[in-house]
Structures are given as C-alpha cells and as structure tokens.
Amino acid sequence: MTDIIQLMHSAVIFGTVIMLGAVGEIITEKAGHLNLGVPGVMYIGGISGLMASFFYENAAAEPSGIISVILSLTATIVGSGLAGLLYGFLTVTLRTNQNVTGLTLTIMGGGIANFFGGMLSKYAGGVGKISTDAASSCYRAYFDFLTGDSTSNPLYAIFGYGWMTFVAIGIAVLAHLFLKKTRAGLGLRAVGENPATADAAGINVTKYKYGAIVVGSVISGLGGLYYTMDYVNGTWIIDGNIEALGWLAVALVIFTTWKPLNAIWGAYLFGLLYWSYLYIPGLTRSSQEIFKMLPYLVTLAVLIVVSLRKKKENLPPEHLGLPYFREER
Amino acid sequence: MSDSHKKHTEPLLRVVKFEGMSRGRRWLVRLIAVLTSLIVSGILILLLAGMNPITVYGTMLRASFGSTRLVWNLLRDSSTLLLLGVGLAPAFAMKFWNIGAEGQMLVGGIATAFCMKYFTGMPTVLLILVMITVSLIAGALWGLLPGVFKAFWNTNETLFTLMMNYIAIQLTSFMVSQWEVGAGNNTVGIINSKGHEGWIPGLFTSQYNKDFGINVLIVLIVTVLMFVYLKYSKHGYEISVVGDSVNTARYAGINVKKVYIRTMILSGAVCGLAGFLAVSGVSHSISTSTAGGRGFTAIIVAWLAKFNTFSMIAIAILLCFLDQGALEIASSCNVNTYVSKIITGVILFFLLAGEFFTMYRVKIRGRHQNP
C-alpha cells in the first residue's frame, strides 16, 4: 500500500511538470507554431524564479515565504514570457523556420539556465547549496489536516501536493474552456488551421500568434518553476533533467491529440510509466533503461494510430510548422 | 478626416517579398549577421565574465589555432558536425523535417561499438569496412521508419523523428549498462584500448588520435558526393521537385512515396555514419552523450546553408570554432562552460534573423516612389 501511494505521489509530481509544459505547448501549437524551444523555455522559467527567490532570501533578514513566492512567480512569468517573445519575433515577424528557431532556443535556454545555476551554486558555496527554503516550503505546503502526518495515508496520494499541482489542473481546464467555448479560442484554432482564411475573416493573425506563443511560453515556464521549487525542493542541479522533461512535454502534446483536458491524465500516466520501474520487482538496471523508453513508445504509437485514423479532431493543426505571409497565397 | 484615415491604412513598416538578391549580397548580409553577433556576444562575455572583448577574441583564436593539436581538434569536431548536416540535406531539401539525426547517429554508434567489441579477430581494414556498413544500415533503418509512415499515412515526421531520438537514447543507456566495465560504473570505457582493433588510424602518422586526417577525408568525400547527388542526379532533381510542391511532383509522374522512403534511407544512413566516426574515429567508446546534441545543431547547420553542402563547411567550422573558443574563455575566466551554449545561441539567432533580410525588404511608410 505504501508503495502504491509513493508511486502515485511521485507520478503526480513528475506529471505536473510536463502537464504545464504540454498545456503551454498546446496553446502555442494551436496557433500553428511548433515551438521546439519548450525545454529551453522551461529552463529559463525555472532559473528565473529560483534566482529571484534566492537573492531575496539571501538579502532579507527574515525572508517571508509569500513575498518569495510572489517574486519567483513574477520572475518566471517575465523570463519565460521574454523567451516566448523572442521566439515569436523570429518566427512570426521575421518568418524564420520554426524548428530551427525552437531548437536554438532550447540550446540557448539550457545554456543560460545552467550558466546562472552554476554561478549561483558557486556563490552559495557548492552544488546543491542553493537554498530557497522560505519559498520552497511555501510552494510545497499541503493540506496536512486532510492527510494527517503520515505519508502512507491514502489521502496523501490525492492531497499531499503543493498548491501549484492543483493550479496546473486549473490551467489545463481553463485552456480547454478557452479553446472550446470562447470566441478568441475559436479564432486561435482558425489561425492554426488556416491563417489565410482567418485573416480573410478579419482575425488579426499576427496578434493571435504572438498572444498564443507568449501565453503558452509562460505556462510552460511555470512547469520549469514547479520543477525547481517542488520537484527538487528549491535548488539547482545541472543534470539535463529539465531538457528531458521538456521533450517529454512535447511528446505529451501528441499523446493528448492537442487537447488540454487529456494532458491532465496523460501527464500522470507518463509519470506512472516513468517511475513504475522502481516498483516492479526483479528488474535489473539494464531492463530499467528499457522501461524508461515506454513514454516515448506510447507516444509514437498514439502518433501512428492518429495518423492512420485521420479523424479531423485528433490531427495536428493543419498549418503547424508553416510560416504565414499575407502576400504569398 | 480622410487624411487620418489614410494614415491608418498604411502601416509604418511594411514587409515585402524580395527575390533575386545576388549571391554576393546574400553572403554580405550573412557576414554582417556574424559580425553583429560577435560584437553582441563580446559584450555578453564582458558582462558575464568580466573579460575585455579584445582579449576574448584573441583567446578564441588561440583556442582553435594555437597549436597543431588544436587545429586537428577543430577539424575533428567540425567534420562530424558537417557530416550530420550533409546527412540532413537531402531530407530537408524535400521539406521532410528529419530532426532525428541525434538518434540516427546514436544507433550508428551502437552498431559500430558492437562490432568493435565482438569482431576483434578480423583484420583491421575488413573490420572497419564492416563497421562502416553496419553503421550505415543502422542509421538507415532509423530513418526508414519515419519515412515509411510519412509516405503511406502522412504521419508527422518532425514528431516521429523526435520520438525516435529518445528511443535511441534509451537504447544507448541500455547497451551501456550491458557493456559497462565494473558493475554500476555506467561507462563502457575505452573499447580495445590495448589492441586498437577497429580504431581509425591517423593519416599522417601511424599513431592514434594524433591527427584526424581519415575522418576529415571520409567526410569531405561524402560532402562532395552528396553535392553531386543533389545537384546533378535524377534523384536529386526529384527531391527538389517534391520539396517545392508535392502536387507538382505527383503531376509530373514522380513516385512521391518512393522518393520519401529512398531519401530517408539515405539521410539516416549518412547520420549513422557520423556515429561510426564518433565511436571508431574519436572517442572509441559509446555513451548517451556520443551525439551530445550535435544532431540538433546539425539541423541548424543544414538549414542555414540552404542545403548546399559546401556552405555547410563554413558554418560547421564557424560553430565549432566558437564552441572551442568559448570553452577556453570559460576555463581562463573561471566561469562555467555553459557560457559557450549562450554564445552559440546568440550567434545562431543573429544568423537566422539575417536570413530574413535576404528574402524580404522592409519598406518605411511614404519612402517609396511608385504607388
């Protein structure tokens, strides 16, 4: 029983990181932009929030958790928003190739984050010495009146998470409602399916694209913040983990067939698949490596099945990855 | 009233398509982009590392051209990157977004390492030929799969090849744990470190790892062959027609499915060969970082060169030069080496943005004569 609770708990925490990454990417892809810079955006989101909290908590005599949380949230929103703006400026205004620009953003985001993360570690006195206790404990505080003290209480697997875990679900639901129930959401989907038609219908294509890219990046960036604050408890480790999770988020977008609601259970499923090797008895270390292939294999299977069935509502946005230039129709 | 209305109809800046820029001007634009990016990254280094920009460029030059060994290192790294770019060129030329070079290179590397480990009895030349063949086959298979699905079911190739990368990475971790020296060590170590079976020897000296002449030679041969293939062969023509418009290709009687599959086999095979070079010619070992993100960087190389394999030479050398230089700066200024990734990113962004000015013109309101 304790094992199952532990597994569910780690799956949800793992899932929340990629859920936020994926929901952001779904919004971006709905505008027809395949942002392969998601890992970079998550890196930048993670490091900006961490730096804000660290410098505040280092400077303040008695750091307040709430202020530290607000500062880190603001920094993450600004940082990942700027990263999205850069990608948007290049791909929308300068019409550069989306794949190439996204990959460059991933290279640079990883560089920026690990550079500052490394400097910060050195400043703090060694690897893993960065501590943002006030913020991290505020992020990680859970409803212990519901779960009791014990981590083997079944309720712990449901409520034993920091508040951002529930905010992530809220964001996914809001994204769904936005895309399906609002006029702007309809416009956004039109832009991704066929920008020329949307343009003719009086939709400001450029504005929609910029909006979707920046908002999407901010949501993905929050995934990076969740990683630094909840997943690794408010410090910085240079191990390329955020990049791996970022690519998994891109995979999750395919798995969900571009639907934010599917991202909720899909993310937790990926988490279960990812961690299950720890709880299956008799696995050697090498067969564990094969197990870690599962999320990617499952995604590939979904991608293939979707393309075989060709159901319109499951296919990627028609103009995904293609630039739009009004004079060129 | 009508005046203010007029003002709004014409935006301040307007972008118009501009075709037929001469070759020379296009390279001039790129040169300006490189120079601007060097200035910007110089300022960045000044801010991040507190190093004087002039010394920075001096250090960078020394890091790549300071000694014969460093020049060979530069050639070694840029030739691997170039080979990957060359491998991607045919796929990109038919607008097939093969972003799976990383995975194709890794499976090529696994196949090579497998032969190095188990076929030690063979004569060196034969062994190397076998290794080349299996790495080509492994890469080709890894490219074939997304090619087939794209051809028959129009499965999105970008996402497919991306997933194949991660499957290849996990496969590599699996092989590493199978072959690791010392339990729990998680490294394969140097394979055949005593007998050097399956190692590519030097071209100018019989020693290993002194010069990388054979690596460079192999890559240059493939580069020239690919250039000829794309420019002068019937296959190359078909690729460019498919890249321009699938419908036109169909109308002209080209079997688009066949072109997709054939080209992806070729593209994957060349990337697999890069895995052979990295394992047999450079590291003599295999790990998940054998490709080390170069499969992704190569995409940028191939794109910036507009699929011209000779232009790729310049871009690959430039990127490796910057990387080597930035690493040197990082170690001499005692900052961490990720500064090189930041600088690479800045330069690539400038080069990408520069492409815009070779294809479009920005018109400012009221500055042009003909209405």
Structural write-up:
The complex is a heterodimer of chains A (about 325) and B (about 375). With about 325 residues, chain A is mainly alpha-helical. Chain A has one domain (about 1-315): Orthogonal Bundle (ABC transporter involved in vitamin B12 uptake, BtuC). Chain A has helices spanning about 1-30, 40-60, 65-95, 100-125, 135-140, 145, 155-160, 165-180, 185-195, 195-200, 205-230, 240-255, 260-275, 285-290, 295-310. In chain A, α3 packs across α5 and α8 (about 165-180) crosses α9. The termini of chain A are far apart. By secondary structure, chain B is mainly alpha-helical. Chain B has a domain at about 80-310. Helices cover about 70% and strands about 5% of the residues of chain B. Chain B is built from 14 helices and two strands, in the order αβαααααααααααααβ. Chain B has helices at about 1-10, 25-50, 55-65, 70-95, 100-120, 125-155, 155-180, 215-230, 235-245, 245-250, 255-285, 295-305, 310-330, 340-360; strands at about 15, 360-365. A two-stranded antiparallel sheet of chain B has the order 1-2. Chain B is globular. Mean pLDDT of chain B is about 85; it is low at about 1-5. Classes of the chains: A mainly alpha (about 325), B mainly alpha (about 375).
